[in-house]
């Protein structure tokens, strides 16, 4: 067992989430007039039920909201974890595919379990749309089963690719700008504002991408849950 950079990054993320909850729940809980911390937590909390209600159809409100706590945990953890790589000398844990795969694969397993719980063996019909001619059934089952299984990878690959590409670009340009600034050469010093301005221009959009990936992950989980519970309806 070794304590690695990803372990430290995820531990810091968990600490930030718990610290935010502490600020809101101290002295007996929320206030009738919310402060800044309470407003932030309420905003994060209210964000999850909306995509759950919009994306998961065919279920009663109570059943839909049973999924909200699990989705809320994933969304909040992603919301705090992704932007950490924008901090200088920090570590982007979601730029490692093994980390994102370790987060997406259990979600896929859980959604599959939910599908069997709600539909029994009829859940297997997700690989065979209704009305398909019998001779085409074996081919369509294979074609539907492969993308269904790749859902365990797709969420992790999407998050990994977006985080690695954007954060790597910002860090490479930042390192280039700093190196040019530190060189004792007038030509490099004059040319330094170019990479520096590019870094400043990319910082805002990259921070937006990091935050929006939490929203994308939430929508993906809701869509997969809708497919597992409602099948081809």
TrEMBL record:
| MF-aspect GO terms | proton-transporting ATP synthase activity, rotational mechanism
**Entry superkingdom:** Eukaryota
Q: Where in the cell is it found?
A: Mitochondrion inner membrane
Q: Which residues cross the membrane?
A: 6-25, 96-116
Q: Might you report a single GO cellular component term? A: mitochondrial inner membrane
Q: Which UniProt keywords apply?
A: ATP synthesis, CF(0), Hydrogen ion transport, Ion transport, Membrane, Mitochondrion, Mitochondrion inner membrane, Transmembrane, Transmembrane helix, Transport
| InterPro entries named in the record | ATP_synth_F0_asu, ATP_synth_F0_asu_AS, ATP_synth_F0_asu_bact/mt, F0_ATP_A_sf
Q: How does it assemble?
A: F-type ATPases have 2 components, CF(1) - the catalytic core - and CF(0) - the membrane proton channel. CF(1) has five subunits: alpha(3), beta(3), gamma(1), delta(1), epsilon(1). CF(0) has three main subunits: a, b and c.
What taxonomic classification does the UniProt entry list for its organism?
A: Eukaryota, Viridiplantae, Streptophyta, Embryophyta, Tracheophyta
Quote the protein name from its UniProt record.
Answer: ATP synthase subunit a
Query: Membrane topology per the record?
Result: Multi-pass membrane protein
Keyword Membrane on entry: yes
Q: Would you identify the family this protein belongs to, as annotated?
A: Belongs to the ATPase A chain family.
């Amino acid at each position: 067992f070794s304590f690695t950079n990803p372990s430290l990054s995820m531990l810091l993320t968990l600490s930030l989430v718990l610290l935010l909850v502490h600020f809101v729940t101290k002295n007996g809980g929320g206030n009738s007039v919310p402060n800044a911390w309470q407003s932030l937590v309420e905003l994060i909390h209210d964000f999850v039920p909306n995509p759950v209600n919009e994306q998961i159809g065919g279920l009663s409100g109570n059943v839909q909201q049973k999924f909200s706590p699990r989705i809320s945990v994933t969304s909040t953890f992603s919301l705090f974890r992704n932007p950490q790589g924008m901090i200088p000398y920090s570590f982007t844990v979601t730029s490692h595919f093994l980390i994102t795969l370790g987060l997406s694969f259990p979600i896929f397993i859980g959604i599959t379990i939910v599908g069997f719980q709600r539909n029994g063996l009829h859940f297997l019909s997700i690989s065979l749309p209704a009305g398909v001619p019998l001779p085409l059934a074996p081919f369509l089952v294979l074609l539907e089963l492969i993308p269904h299984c790749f859902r365990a990878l797709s969420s992790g690959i999407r998050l990994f690719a977006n985080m690695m590409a954007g954060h790597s670009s910002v860090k490479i340009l930042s390192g280039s700008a700093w190196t040019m600034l530190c060189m004792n050469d007038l030509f490099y010093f004059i040319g330094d504002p170019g990479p520096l301005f590019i870094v400043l221009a990319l910082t805002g959009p990259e921070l937006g991408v990091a935050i929006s990936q939490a929203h994308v992950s939430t929508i993906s989980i809701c869509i997969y849950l809708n497919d597992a519970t409602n099948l081809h309806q």
